Amino acid sequence: MRLGIISDTHGKLRPEVLDVFSQVDHILHGGDVGSVSILDRLAALAPVTAVYGNVDPFDVRARCPRVARLELDGLIVVVTHGDQFGSPTPRVLRAEFPDADVLVYGHTHQPLLELVDKTVTVMNPGSAGPGRFGQAQSVGIMELEPGIPPRARLVRLGSL
Q1: What's the CATH fold of domain 2-156?
Q2: pLDDT digit string (tens) for 95-137?
């Protein structure tokens, strides 16, 4: 299973995202979506599991949970924006969600791909929306296969 991982779109869906996600089986959105229209556009590519972030409007919050937990290819995946933990880190998230095999979060706008405890893959795809904090825009791709640790990479988006 191939996952497209995105966060912090803040109402802007860059055209490159549609290209990068053209062959994904499922999309995970780590919050600060900005508009339900972003979720609808992503859903045209693949099923979407999204959470709301700290600046999401009411309609996004009505449609998305704060934390999503799902099983994909035998792995427990947890998606959260992470703002409830201040400035989230892989170690904090691991402590909060000890049964997760994959943790996806947003909020910091800083791309991160880390292995925690040699078994848990943690990804923050960075921000795919408007440029902020001097960070390049990025998303993630993750490959899941039963019995094999996830393989993942960050994909930098062009500056628009």
Answers
A1: Purple Acid Phosphatase; chain A, domain 2 (3.60.21)
A2: 999 999 999 999 999 999 998 877 789 999 999 887 666 778 9
Q: 0.90 cut: is pTM over it?
A: yes
Q: Which long-range contacts (CB under 8 A, 24 or more apart) does 94-101 make?
A: 94/120, 94/122, 97/69, 100/69, 100/76, 101/75, 101/76, 101/77, 101/150
Q: Which of 101, 109, 133 is nearest to 31 (CA)?
A: 109
Q: For the chain, what is the radius of gyration of the CA atoms?
A: 14
C-alpha–C-alpha distance, residues 59 and 63, integer Å: 6
Phi then psi for residue 16, to 5 deg, are: -60, -30
